[in-house]
Every structure is written in structure tokens, then in C-alpha cells.
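At this stage, I needed to go through a protein sequence along with its fold in C-alpha cell form, as given directly below:
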Amino acid sequence: MKQNDAVFQAVCSTLSQDGFDGAVELTKDQRNTVVDMVTQGIMDGVVDFSDEAKAKYDTEAKVKSYTTGMVSNHLRKDKRLNGDTKYEAKNPGSRSGSSDPQLKALKALRSTITEAEQLAAIDEAIANRTSEIQATKAKKVEINPDALPEHLRYLIEA
């Protein structure tokens, strides 16, 4: 069984309902019950869990920790549980470049500086590096100029 289906079924079972009109709000005890049910499903092999995940989360305590976050994730994102709304991140792009060593170092340096002039220089370097990272990720699009109207062909970069 897929993880999202396991969470949905556990929520339905906990609340003794088949469906929901709005967003599901669980009490702390209800959330713990859902987490325990899904954790047990993973431990019993009923709920999908990749071999890599099994290796990483090799104890029930680790699986429960993983499941706690997974349940929260599905409560926010699963349209059956969130009132049929499209999930939107609160801070989109806030983790962009988080794996870049240069950007990490710049952000670490920024946290140690208090002088406004130095902060401005670091902020500029962070902005420049973020732009560089985004530029490398930009999609390369192939456009057939013959398919465009004559008056718009000049828009294609040479």
C-alpha cells in the first residue's frame, strides 16, 4: 500500500469517517494514533518502504520519527485531507542553493558579521552566487524559427 493511502486510511480509522468536508484537524492524541498505525504498517511490510529507507531507518524508533514527518506532510498536501486545496510552500525557494558549498560558506560568514557595510557586501555576493546557480539550472529550449510568425522571429537569440 502506498504511504499516502496508509495515512489516509489511518486518519479515517482514527476519526471513524470515510471522507472529510474540510481540512482535517487532529488532536495530539489522534496524530499519535495515526503515526503509530502507519509506523506499524511499515514495520509489518504492509506499507511501501524502499530498501534504501529500510537501511537508513533500521529501528522502530527511527521509522516512527520518519513517519511523524510523513504524516504531517500528507496532512498538508493530500487533497483528501487538506480540504481539497492545492499545497503551496510558505517560503518557495528558501532552500535553493543549500547544497552549494560556496553559498553555505557565505551564509555562515554572514551570521558572524555585524557591521552594515560588510553585511551588504556579503549579501551582494550571496545574491550573485544564487543567480549563478539559477542560471545553470535554466531550461534550454529549442525553438524552430520557421514555426514562428515572421514578425516575432527577431525575439530568438542568435
Observations:
- The chain has a mean pLDDT of 88.
